[in-house]
Amino acid sequence: MGFFTDEELLQLKIKKMILHVVGDGGFEAQPELPAVQQEEFFLARIGEINASGLFRFEAGSATKATLEAMATGKQSFQMGGQALAGAFSKSHVGASKDGAFFVFELMPLDAGVKLYAMFKIDYKSAIERTRQDGAVQLRKIIEAFIEDRKAVQKSCLIKVAHGVALADVSAKDRIGQAPNLTDYFQRFLGVRRERSDEELNKSALSGVRNALNDVQSHLPQKDVGKAFALAKDALRHRQRIDTKAIHEAVLAALGPDPADDAKAAINAAVERQIRKQRLTGLAFKPNAQALRRSPRRRVKTVEGVVIEYPAELEDVSVRRVTHKDGRATLTIDTKHIEHDVLVPDKTVP
């Protein structure tokens, strides 16, 4: 699943927020905003960055320590927000664009669990904070968002349970090669990546196979093995693998013009597997090793029986049971036999 479930996203409310300008100029600490502004807008942005946790805090992470101090009351939200923004500003490299750095504390959904969101918005030269009746306004930042929906460049979601930040961190960086983060953002957070591209590819394939097994009755000839091979081939040719790519790959295995009920069943099964495999909101490169065409397995018995089949059909169409006395039973479940002829015995001289 994503960092938040769909139900949790609907319940989210912003409790506190603080905003700082980060960039080439000197850092100037700002007070916590006296009231939550544009809550609906910012909750929508948090929904957009919601993704499965792919990163984990490293020992000694200063960001983790600051968030824990904020969650336990050892440091006020304002002081913690200023410390986080100051640390981000110091790590901000010269080639990076100026922007607005937000820290949010969200209303808790569970007792003892504090929720935090941070993101940096690139605002170009057109955006600035304005003051009206002594209060900071965010109107120009909102206007810039409308012009550029990709303005959120760096983001993260973090939970602190009973004073301890949970290890899993959901983080995105539009500048990095997804799902990787730019070096300075990763250093600021003090995190390391938890799963490699190969592991993510394998998780995607496991999800695809499980989804196809769940909807076998909707597949052409109910052939899971063939459908899996088609879906795997479709993923192999994608530039990036994400939720949309996985859905499209599995739908392609249904063949042309699938029935509406089949599409609905497939989409539901795929969505369940994406959550189960913790791939929600992630995008990653196809991995040649994970997506390579399956090797063929060749089995020869002492009786001279030879069986050869694609290894990916093991435990799908070909099942093997090894008994305690060493005997083995191989079962092949096939729609029909295409080739059945007598051949000369080449073992006889």
Characterization of this structure:
The structure is a single chain. The protein has 349 residues and is an alpha+beta fold. The chain has three domains: 6-193, no CATH class; 197-289, no CATH class; 294-349, no CATH class. 34% of the residues lie in helices and 22% in strands. It contains eleven helices and 14 strands. Strands 1, 2, 3, 4, 7, 8, 9 and 10 form an eight-stranded antiparallel sheet that branches. A two-stranded antiparallel sheet has the order 5-6. The chain starts with 5 loop residues before the first helix and ends in a 17-residue tail after the last strand. The model has no long low-confidence stretch (mean pLDDT 85).
How would you briefly describe this protein structure?
The chain is α+β, with helices and mostly antiparallel strands and 349 residues long.
Shape: elongated
Give the C-alpha Rg.
26 Å
Report the portion of residues in β strands: 15-25%
Give the number of DSSP strands.
14
In round numbers, the mean pLDDT is: 85
DSSP helix fraction: 25-40%
The end-to-end distance, rounded to whole angstroms, is: 62 Å
SSE-based structural type: alpha+beta
Show unreliable segments: none
Main sheet attributes: strand count, strand direction, barrel closure: 8 strands, antiparallel
Number of helices: 11
Order of helix and strand elements from N to C terminus: HEHEHHEEEEHEEEHEHHHHHEEEE
How many structural domains can be distinguished in the coordinates? Answer: 3
Protein name: Nucleoid-associated protein YejK
Organism: Methylobacterium bullatum
